Amino acid sequence: MTRNIQQLLTEHIDLWTSAIENKSSAGRGNSRKKSLYGIKKLRELILELAVRGKLVEQDPDDEPAEVLLKRIVAERDQLIKDKKIKKQKTLPPISDEEKPFELPKGWKWVRLQGLTTLLGDGLHGTPNYDDKGEYYFVNGNNLKDGMIVIKPETKRVNEAEYQKYKKHLNSRTVLVSINGTLGNIAFYAGEAIMLGKSACYFNLATELSKTFIKKLIMAPYFSDYARANATGSTIKNLGLKAINHLPMPLPPLDEQHRIVAKVDELMALCDQLEQQTEQQLDAHQLLVDTLLGTLTQSQNANELADSWTRLSQHFDTLFTTEASIDQLKQTILQLAVMGKLVPQNPNDEPASELLKKVATDRAKLIKEGKIKKQKPLTEINDEEVGFNPPNGWAWSRMGDLVQYQKGYAFKSKDYLECGLMITKIQNLTENHIQNSVYIAPDSALVFAQYLLHEGDIVMTTVGSWFSAPISAVGRSFLINKLFDNSLLNQNAVRIRPWKELAPVYLFACINSPIFKSYLVHEAQGTANQASITQESIKTFLLCVPPKEEQHRIVVKINELFTLCDQLKERLQHNQQTQLLLTDTLVNEALN
């Protein structure tokens, strides 16, 4: 390994380990939802340097690859003479345009076909399965890191079916996935298998390092070639012609072995770096959990203020991941709904008076026939109360504080390109309207009960706990002017608070960990397809602050969330800088 390459690999360890990319499904407090981008790029760089002849020093005493190729040709000619294989069609020489980089002295460009004695793919069709069959029907998704992986769902075939479609596999056989996921690789080791069409196989000539070929297939060089030559839009397919024509950078045999040894050595280093980085992320998360826990466990405003002061002095070192910043936001909401975020004012009108006004307003509308009288909710008992509320606060069921409306299943045949908007789950974004559908404007009177107004809260009632936020059950949205006078679609519920309850404060309660935990407990169905009933939402126990304190809480939440957003923006900028630096290092090493 040349000195400048060694420096790039070893003298930038901090960058390799600190360049971290958030995955789209990143969840709260889970370091495994992150991609260790720097280490991933380091692995790719090692493999790419290997196939370009830049990872180990060349030895002038090595037998050149040209001589090795002559022996491979002689081996193939002998097999043809012995009628063990058929003569293959001669492929055109590799043009200069096909060579993406220059090779070191002693190396040779050769098409993959020139290194094999046989190349083909599996069965194009569906065999007759047999649950008691002796052979497994494997495809590209059964290949992983050099091994054939038999899964519980892998189908079987019997001896007769195998004999009809068997391929000539041996100890020199390399299997590669060429449909769907491209480039999964495995060595054949005598397993009882029958190949499907998404796996190709090639039998390497005797005097080649199978492991070197494996490293080459795993390198970005092959994935770039596969992307450039694959067909299909949704499901990619790499044809046998492209596999046969693959230009292979071939080093001398002795150098192949040195490269494999060096790659394994450096990959072991990457494993160590990865483990250390994940341990550091876990330790960081534990620290964040512990310190944020001191906030929610504070017994009074003075104790909370002291804990917050200690925490705020270490913001730059504590909140260094998007997950930790999101967790800080959740803690802020938790403090808000427990009455710990702002001090109480003894001059505020107590929440008990607020609840009386809500009851009076509701009774008036019932008497006037404007709303229906609802079934009384169960009385609150001491066992349900999760914490001791501050003075002036009062417990209430959510059903006694808001009006509910389930969405309507509008028919697609009535959709128009403009008119009265139907607000679907996927419409709900902060700053713009997307995927909108409309119905005739004169339908407003017919569907008046489903109208949404600014200040309403919409909550999804069907979805998955683990899906993208846009389709997750329990996702909520505070209706703004953008969606005012739109119609509520199915699989959602409209929550409209009585005027004594600030919509923004209720929205904070609905997004708090207390309410989210309640939803998980109350959800019906499975984690992948859960649902929340309107009755469950109504039954939720909410601790209501005085009206004046609601507004003070909202102001404080906005102030602290702005700080969190600033932290996240700075973090994202730093992360992008680290990713850019990582890519720059990779390009420097290759060029």
UniProtKB/TrEMBL annotation:
A GO molecular-function descriptor: DNA binding
Database matches in Pfam families: Methylase_S
Superkingdom assignment: Bacteria
Type I restriction modification DNA specificity domain mapped to chain residues: 104-281, 390-571
Keywords: DNA-binding, Restriction system
Record GO biological process: DNA restriction-modification system
Similarity comment: family membership: Belongs to the type-I restriction system S methylase family.
Protein known as: Type I restriction enzyme, S subunit
Species whose genome carries this gene: Neptunomonas antarctica
